[in-house]
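Workshop exercise sheet. Pairs work together: one partner reads the sequence aloud, the other fills in the structure field after running the prediction. Swap roles for the next sheet.
Pair: D.N. / O.F.
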Amino acid sequence: MTQNNSGSNGREEMASKAHAAVQEDEFATANGQKVRIKIFRGDSEGGKEVEYEIPTVEGMVVLDAVLTVQAYQAQDLAVRWNCKAAHCGSCSAEINGRPKLLCKSRVDEYEGQEIRIHPIRAFPVIKDLVSNVSWNYGVSATIPPFNPGEEQAPFTMYEEDVERLYEPKKCIECFMCQDVCHVLRTHHKHAEFAGPRFFVRSQWLEMHPMDTESRLHYLKEDQGGLGYCNITKCCTEVCPVGIKITDNSIIPLKERVADEYYDPAKWLMRKIRGNGGRSRGTGPRPEHARAEIRTNG
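Structure field:
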């Protein structure tokens, strides 16, 4: 089979912009300013920081800087990105030790500081700035799914109930909250702890007015591990879309778990009914359960 490089229309085939040869003077700036950045280069076996110097342009974000290095100086540099608009969560990494979206962090924010870029550290490094976050999708699959019971869509829902579902659904799954959480980052409790992102998802399911499932046993006894969280609010601080993870997800879920497992009146009733005072927190929820999740505006 013979390859025709001229294309089906007889025109010369145009190289992809991503792989086209580029000249450094295309990135020349009027003021000639440059910035030095240090990028982690390595894989799961180890690595080190490598320093690069690049020209800057007005409005440049850190992702631009990394892609400039990739285009001109290190074509084998691995970085994950997609939309460059802070909607996909793909370009999450650590800048000077703090989880950030590379596309949302301007270079001029770090004027006078060094810029050190590393992959998110709560998960295994694949190469350079790319980490393996597939563990998160496995955790997502363990959460009891939405269960409307016998009622089928379309549902009739009050506007106030719909509005309460908006905030947790804003999550873009950048997993920066997972990265900054000390339970995963420092103590490596991946087998016992779901992490802030999935407390947000559990909260969304628990507050849905049409859902009939209870996830309290999952959160307390199974992989949820809600009790490990000591409410430092570090997850809330790094969320790029402003979800109040601690106040609107974790604390309300902790309140529900405490109410179900440790409320003396409920414990006594379970004792009288003959189940040893224990609650598994599974099965159908009572009709009023949706009102028990409160959110703060």
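Discussion prompt: The beta strands are 34-43, 46-55, 92-95, 98-101, 115-118, 125-127, 130-131. What would you look at next?
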